[in-house]
Design a protein that fits this description.
heterodimer, A: mainly alpha, Rna Polymerase Sigma Factor, Chain: A, Arc Repressor Mutant, subunit A, 2 domains, about 65% helix, B: mainly alpha, 3 domains, 6 helices, about 0% strand
Chain lengths: ~190, ~200
């Protein structure tokens, strides 16, 4: 898990942004742009930049309602989650079974030299397979999984962002992990012997 | 599957949460070192999560921040305009209701001073008469729609030929109207954005 960077003096930036300071809002966008694009990409698989931009606009419009005593991440990711859900409802995301090999398709070959995840990611097939595996995990598990493992939000923060009890958040993350692991089994077996 | 394997499987999620420490953690590690199946399963969890984290994501374009700020500021301006318009409409509704109530009050005061309070509500009733008028319009539209349905030959006395002619004329009118409205809408849109 990556160590999460926190936005420097977020409440001051938000106060300034609420007062119409465009530079302050620009700083917030600059700080969160990569994280939001990453979240949208993992959630929807395409059009992440446009989605992230729309989320920032919604965030800007909702800034008046933001409680400055609370952390910014759950608030922002709540908007992001709802927006991605709407986007997914509008388009039909294809969910292709990972294990089923189509006719004429080559089997993915990975050298048995115990590569790590980053080495594996150099291969386009692996990226594609991870995207497909992720798309096949139901969206409710997927969002919790991404928030916890990629965005490094705590259970409490995810509970706030998704408006769910803590136990449900834990259950969704656990189930999400299991489903992702099952979908990515072929790559794991190729790394057996570790 | 042995008892240790079942216990280890149950602990895997806790380990992935990063909340298993001390003796239990040591026991977990020890079992993994001995059991190939559990080791493979746990490694599968780790690799799949590593793949999730290291999945390459698109980089934002160089003008992303400036473009987003510009669009957000524009959206805020639009939102303010909408709120202002809504507040004007609300003010107008409240004002007209109050006016009607006061008028009713005054009128009653002149004719029958003992029934002034009742006059206040007469005005209020007049406002709701307006609302019911709107509802009547909706029901009139529904009735028109029903009449149109009844114009289809199985339910009407005229033949299919008359029906086709009616449909053709109606289509021509609709297309012409939608063309004019579209043109006007685009003009309005240009005016709004240039403003």
């Amino acid at each position: 898990m990556q160590a999460r960077e926190t936005v420097p003096d977020s409440s001051n930036l938000i106060k300034r942004a609420c007062g119409g300071d465009e530079a302050a809002f620009g700083e917030l966008v600059h700080f969160y742009q990569q994280r939001l694009i990453g979240y949208c990409h993992r959630m929807t698989g395409s059009g992440a930049e446009d989605l992230a931009q729309e989320i920032f606009i919604k965030f800007y419009l909702a800034l008046d309602r933001f409680d400055l005593s609370r952390p910014i991440d759950p608030f922002l990711f709540r908007i992001a989650h709802n927006h991605c859900l709407d986007a997914l409802k509008k388009k039909t995301v294809p969910t292709i079974p990972l294990i089923k090999k189509e006719e004429g398709e080559k089997e993915i070959q990975i050298e048995d030299n115990k590569p790590n995840a980053e080495d594996l990611m150099q291969k386009n097939e692996v990226q594609k397979a991870v995207n497909q595996a992720l798309a096949s995990v139901p969206v409710l598990y997927r969002s919790a999984l991404i928030m916890y493992h990629v965005e490094d939000l705590s259970y409490e923060e995810i509970s706030g962002a998704l408006d769910l009890p803590l136990g449900t958040v834990k259950a969704r993350i656990h189930r999400g992990r299991e489903l992702l692991q099952q979908k990515l089994q072929p790559f794991v077996f190729l790394n057996e012997g570790i | 599957m042995s008892k240790e394997c079942i216990q280890t499987k149950e602990l895997m999620q806790t380990v992935l949460d990063g909340t298993l420490w001390g003796e239990k953690r040591a026991g977990f590690e020890q079992h993994l070192a001995q059991c190939r199946n559990c080791r493979t399963e746990f490694r599968a969890f780790q690799i799949s999560l590593d793949l999730l984290v290291s999945l390459p994501v698109p980089k934002p374009g160089s003008g992303f921040v400036a473009d987003t700020v510009k669009k957000a500021v524009l959206a805020k301006q639009m939102q303010r305009r909408q709120h202002r318009l809504l507040s004007w409409i609300m003010t107008l509704v409240i004002l007209s209701t109050s006016m009607l109530m006061v008028r009713g009050w005054f009128e009653t005061a002149q004719s029958d001073p003992n029934r002034m309070l009742a006059g206040l509500f007469t005005g209020f009733t007049e406002f709701w008469a307006l609302i019911s008028g709107l509802l009547q319009t909706v029901s009139a539209l529904a009735a028109t729609f029903w009449t149109l349905i009844k114009a289809i030959p199985p339910w009407s006395s005229s033949g299919w030929g008359t029906f086709y002619a009616e449909v053709a004329i109606a289509l021509a009118i609709t297309l012409s109207l939608s063309f004019i409205l579209k043109f006007r809408r685009s003009k309005v849109r240009t005016m709004i954005f240039s403003f």
